[in-house]
């Protein structure tokens, strides 16, 4: 009797649960959306907010909270959040942080959801980046989002005063050095200290090396750095030393020197352009950008890196994925690129006429065609922190003349392999 | 007897709010953290018992050795020097009276008031190579530019300077409070005996402020062993980049945080934390033993 | 009383001073003043400099022109306006102020109650309890941060004020410091109060607390500084923008890839420095008075 009653009640209860559950989902879903801090400021924030409003209009009852985070806060917040199940629902990060996030359990495998999207959507993206997000068959951790290729910004006032012909392209490293000689003779600095961080080092190393000679092989636990090419780059860093400001490319002091006509060359990502543009208006800074010079004529240097948007393995993952797919879609990426001149991985959006004319974007795209990836391979293994600092420490030691380039190269490869094997 | 019991109950009642919070938000987390140090702890996947593997991994790593060595050098310079400077400031302020005593004490305390991120931003500018304030001053004397924050020979000292700049005011205030409690007639007696200013400091001031001095030294030592913020902010200040050139400014807490949030090795980070805790507990025990030996004022 | 004290103190370290002052300053006095002024400049210069960066025409590089004095009020006001309109700085101010004040109140109350017991009385288990609490002073905060965070999450306190505040209330530092000061309270005064019929709590409230005023104010200021400057805890426990503290908002400006110029960064920094500075300047006077009153002991 009792059993019977409960049996008859069960479906009713279940039905109630389902209906309230659904109603609940439609009324009160809140998605936390974490982005880099520059995505949550000024123009970029307005555009992101527009995307959110459009998405919410199609999904009534959904609330999306966007939060901007500094690089580190973004990563540590996502890792700590994954540990407790309270992190963001949908978030961006650099592909170089991808495997850390996978290990921490912060990223959901979205392969099934991805394959369920229309072919026309999937075809919009850069194929290499889709492959990067899919490290194993049927395992996909992200949708490629924004990206960059490095550029060399030139202070035209400094160069003209030094008697450099700014119309003629810089042919190779030797040509670049001879320009810096002139700059030094006129009492100005040539470059920031390129050995101080891994990205500026890679901007030099990529002048001699190929894509297969950077990063690591996590199966054999060996670095892919080619010692001969490394020695060449290290030798060049030694030659750059007399022209260096001694500051890191990311120091605000470096940007200040460039803006105040004390520094000729400034190699960095396109994100440094807004303050330069502002300085051009405020103080008459004259500058342009060119490709990062390679060691020999025809060899292009540069670094490219990408941000992805990922989804946490949580209850609202399906909706979070829909949102991720929405913001990375062509129409949104066209508006993003057109408004900000920023590069992204949606190839079709970059071909749009409202976008392709943007000079900064065109240059970034050109740089990205040949540049080396920042910290490959992605999503396959986690580099110990000491891996990258070992490179910059070694490069700095050579630049300071503490070791010869050849010794340093042999030492470094040994050390990096040890670091990889240790972990 | 019964009044003694009621009094005991009153003692525990007064202690209970603090002790309760302490048990929940300190003891419990530390026990669960200790538990994690024996696991390959990956938040998402199920954790796996690995015994002492985390401990041996940390103990044999290159960065552990480097960080420990750095810490040893740092602590043996910064603690004595910092207290010497703070005591000097306290005596200096104490030798003024009225408005100027207040004025200088406030001025010397100001660095303590400033948030660290802000202090670090400014010191980076002071230390900037070639054109920073410090190098501008050096160039007036015809000296070559020094790379304070990237030359492995100067980094540690540059950091200790910031460290003392930030902490001296803190210790000064505590020492000053101690100085004020030294009965003035002690000095008069010493002066009548013909003691010089220096002799008064050594024979009257220092013995009288022993408990406060003990506090300042012990606390200084404990916080120096946990140094994190300043070297973090003066180097890359990110989990991808910290410790500076050749890990010259890498310290244990930093190495531990890097293993946790940078490399997602929370088990190793927990093990690291416990080794560090044991070290600090030993050092503090020695300090307490010393205080017992040399008498409590 | 306090006047006598200060004059005695002036002469105590330079016996020649009081006589010499009437005629001409001695060499030692001149040296003392030079030293004090130089140290004051070193200590205060950064704030002055930061102020100058904010209140100067933008575009002129700091590295070339060190900005030793402010040049433009308008530029500074404009910078501040940008910060207040383009970020949620006011909201962050509110969160930081509440976080800081409630933390101070909690720490002062709970640690002083416990310190009173540890400093003045004997009771069963005192040594053990004290030993355990002292242990926490020795444990690096970083060791407990992850488990404490997980606990806070289990309590459902993520992105709440109590999540920010409560885990930090058991301050072993505050306890240790107050014990050191409360040890100096003469036990006769406590006995006297007990003979007057005061109960245990009343003795604490009416005798011990007023006598520890200096220590409490010092602890309040130090707690203020520590809480206002606390970066890592709010970062992980209050990750949602509506609970951002000032430190987190400043962090957005300090990020290397942030699209901001140095004057804006310094404006954000300066605004973060103003409350602790004001707090300190206000309570400064009370510290001085408190010290003058502490003549009770001698």
From TrEMBL, chain A:
Gene3D superfamilies recorded: Periplasmic binding protein-like II (3.40.190.10)
Keywords per UniProt: Periplasm, Signal, Transport
Keyword Endoplasmic reticulum (UniProt): no
Signal found in the keyword field: yes
UniProt signal peptide: 1-25
InterPro entries assigned: SBP (IPR006059)
GO CC, one annotated term: ATP-binding cassette (ABC) transporter complex, substrate-binding subunit-containing
GO function terms (MF aspect): maltose binding
Biological-process GO terms, alphabetical: maltodextrin transmembrane transport; maltose transport
Family note: Belongs to the bacterial solute-binding protein 1 family.
Full protein name: Sugar ABC transporter substrate-binding protein
Organism encoding this protein: Xaviernesmea rhizosphaerae
UniProtKB/TrEMBL annotation, chain B:
Record-linked CDD domains: TM_PBP2
Sequence intervals crossing the membrane: 12-39, 71-92, 104-126, 155-179, 212-234, 269-290
Signal sequence, start to end: none
Annotated Gene Ontology cellular component terms: plasma membrane
Cell location: Cell membrane
InterPro entries hit by this protein: ABC_transporter_permease, MetI-like, MetI-like_sf
Predominant cellular place of this UniProt entry's protein: membrane
Membrane topology: Multi-pass membrane protein
Keywords: Cell membrane, Membrane, Transmembrane, Transmembrane helix, Transport
Gene Ontology biological process terms, A to Z: transmembrane transport
PROSITE patterns in alphabetical order: ABC_TM1
Gene3D superfamilies, per the entry: MetI-like (1.10.3720.10)
Ranges for domain ABC transmembrane type-1: 68-287
Family note: Belongs to the binding-protein-dependent transport system permease family.
PANTHER family noted in UniProt: ABC TRANSPORTER PERMEASE PROTEIN, INNER MEMBRANE ABC TRANSPORTER PERMEASE PROTEIN YCJO
Name of this chain's protein: Sugar ABC transporter permease
């Amino acid at each position: 009797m009792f059993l019977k009653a409960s049996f008859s009640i069960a479906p009713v209860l279940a039905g109630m649960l389902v209906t309230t559950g659904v109603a609940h989902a439609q009324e009160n879903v809140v998605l936390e959306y974490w982005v880099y801090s520059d995505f949550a400021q000024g123009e970029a924030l307005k555009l992101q907010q527009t995307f959110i409003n459009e998405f919410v209009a199609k999904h009534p009852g959904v609330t999306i909270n966007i939060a901007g985070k500094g690089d580190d806060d973004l990563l540590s917040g996502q890792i700590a959040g994954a540990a407790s199940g309270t992190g963001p629902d949908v978030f961006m990060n650099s592909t170089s942080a991808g495997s850390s996030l996978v290990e921490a359990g912060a990223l959901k495998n979205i392969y099934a959801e991805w394959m369920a999207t229309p072919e026309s959507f999937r075809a919009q993206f850069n194929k290499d980046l889709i492959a990067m997000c899919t490290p194993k068959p049927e395992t996909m951790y992200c949708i490629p989002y924004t990206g960059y290729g490095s550029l060399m910004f030139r202070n035209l006032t400094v160069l003209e005063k030094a008697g450099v012909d700014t119309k003629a392209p810089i042919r190779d490293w030797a040509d670049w050095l001879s320009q810096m000689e002139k700059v030094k003779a006129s009492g100005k600095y040539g470059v920031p200290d390129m050995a101080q961080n891994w990205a500026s080092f890679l901007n030099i190393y990529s002048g001699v090396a190929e894509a297969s000679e950077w990063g690591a092989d996590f199966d054999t636990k060996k670095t892919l750095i080619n010692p001969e090419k490394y020695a060449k780059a290290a030798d060049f860093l030694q030659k750059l030393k007399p022209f260096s400001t001694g500051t890191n490319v990311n120091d605000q002091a470096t940007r200040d020197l460039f803006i105040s006509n004390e520094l000729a060359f400034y190699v960095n990502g396109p994100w440094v352009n807004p303050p330069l543009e502002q300085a051009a208006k405020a103080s008459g800074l004259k500058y342009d950008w060119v490709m990062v010079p390679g060691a020999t004529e025809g060899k292009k240097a540069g670094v490219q890196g990408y941000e992805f948007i990922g989804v946490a393995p949580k209850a609202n993952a399906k909706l979070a994925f829909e949102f991720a797919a929405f913001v990375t879609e062509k129409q949104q990426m066209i508006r993003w690129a057109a408004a900000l001149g920023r590069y992204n991985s949606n190839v079709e959006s970059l071909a749009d006429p409202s976008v392709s004319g943007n000079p900064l974007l065109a240059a970034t795209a050109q740089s990205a065609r040949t540049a080396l990836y920042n910290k490959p391979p992605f999503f396959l293994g986690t580099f110990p922190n000491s891996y990258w600092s070992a490179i910059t420490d070694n490069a700095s030691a050579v630049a300071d003349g503490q070791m010869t380039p050849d010794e340093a190269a042999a030492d470094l490869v040994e050390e990096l392999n040890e670091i990889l094997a240790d972990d | 007897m019964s009044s003694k019991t009621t009094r005991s109950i009153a003692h525990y009642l007064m202690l209970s709010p603090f002790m309760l919070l302490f048990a929940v938000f300190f003891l419990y987390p530390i026990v669960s953290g200790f538990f994690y140090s024996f696991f390959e702890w990956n938040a998402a996947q199920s954790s796996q018992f690995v015994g002492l593997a985390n401990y041996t991994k940390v103990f044999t790593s290159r960065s552990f050795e480097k960080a420990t060595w750095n810490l040893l050098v740092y602590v043996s310079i910064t603690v004595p020097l910092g207290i010497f400077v703070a005591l000097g400031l306290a005596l200096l302020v104490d030798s003024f009276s009225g408005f100027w005593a207040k004025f200088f004490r406030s001025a010397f305390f100001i660095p303590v008031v400033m948030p660290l991120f802000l202090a670090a931003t400014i010191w980076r500018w002071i230390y900037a190579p070639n054109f920073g304030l410090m190098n501008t001053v050096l160039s007036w004397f015809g000296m070559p530019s020094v790379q304070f924050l990237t030359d492995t020979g100067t980094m540690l000292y540059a950091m200790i300077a910031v460290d003392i700049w930030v902490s001296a005011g803190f210790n000064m205030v505590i020492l000053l409070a101690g100085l004020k409690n030294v009965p003035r007639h002690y000095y008069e007696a010493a002066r009548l005996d013909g003691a010089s200013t220096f002799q008064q400091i050594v024979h009257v001031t220092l013995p009288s402020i022993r408990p406060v001095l003990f506090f300042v030294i012990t606390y200084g030592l404990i916080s120096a062993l946990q140094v994190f913020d300043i070297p973090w902010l003066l180097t890359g200040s990110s989990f991808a980049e910290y410790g500076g050139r050749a890990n010259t400014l890498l310290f244990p807490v930093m190495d531990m945080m890097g293993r946790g949030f940078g490399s997602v090795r929370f088990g190793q980070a927990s093990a690291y934390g416990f080794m560090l805790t044991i070290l600090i507990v030993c050092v503090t025990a020695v300090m307490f033993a010393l205080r017992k030996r040399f008498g409590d004022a | 009383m306090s006047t006598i004290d200060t004059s005695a103190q002036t002469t105590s370290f330079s016996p020649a001073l009081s006589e010499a002052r009437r005629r001409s300053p001695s060499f030692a006095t001149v040296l003392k003043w030079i030293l004090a002024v130089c140290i004051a400049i070193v200590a205060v210069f950064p704030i002055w400099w930061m102020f100058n960066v904010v209140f100067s025409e933008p575009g002129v590089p700091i590295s070339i022109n060190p900005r030793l004095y402010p040049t433009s009020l308008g530029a500074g006001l404009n910078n501040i306006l940008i910060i207040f309109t383009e970020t949620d700085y006011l909201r962050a101010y509110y969160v930081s102020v509440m976080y800081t004040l409630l933390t101070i109140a909690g720490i002062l109350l709970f640690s002083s109650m416990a310190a009173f017991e540890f400093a003045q009385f004997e009771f069963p288990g005192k040594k053990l309890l004290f030993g355990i609490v002292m242990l926490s002073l020795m444990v690096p905060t970083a060791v407990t941060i992850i488990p404490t965070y997980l606990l806070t999450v289990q309590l459902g306190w993520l992105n709440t004020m109590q999540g920010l505040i409560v885990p930090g209330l058991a301050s072993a530092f505050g306890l240790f410091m107050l014990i050191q000061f409360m040890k100096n309270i003469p036990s006769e005064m406590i006995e006297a109060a007990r003979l007057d019929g005061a109960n245990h709590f009343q003795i604490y409230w009416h005798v011990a607390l007023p006598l520890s005023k200096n220590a409490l104010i010092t602890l309040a200021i130090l707690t203020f500084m520590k809480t206002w400057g606390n970066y890592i805890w709010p970062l992980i426990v209050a990750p949602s923008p509506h609970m951002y503290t000032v430190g987190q908002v400043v962090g957005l400006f300090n990020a290397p890839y942030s699209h901001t110029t140095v004057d804006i960064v310094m404006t954000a920094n300066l605004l973060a420095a103003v409350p602790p500075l004001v707090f300190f300047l206000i309570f400064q006077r009370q510290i001085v008075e408190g010290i003058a009153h502490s003549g009770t002991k001698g």
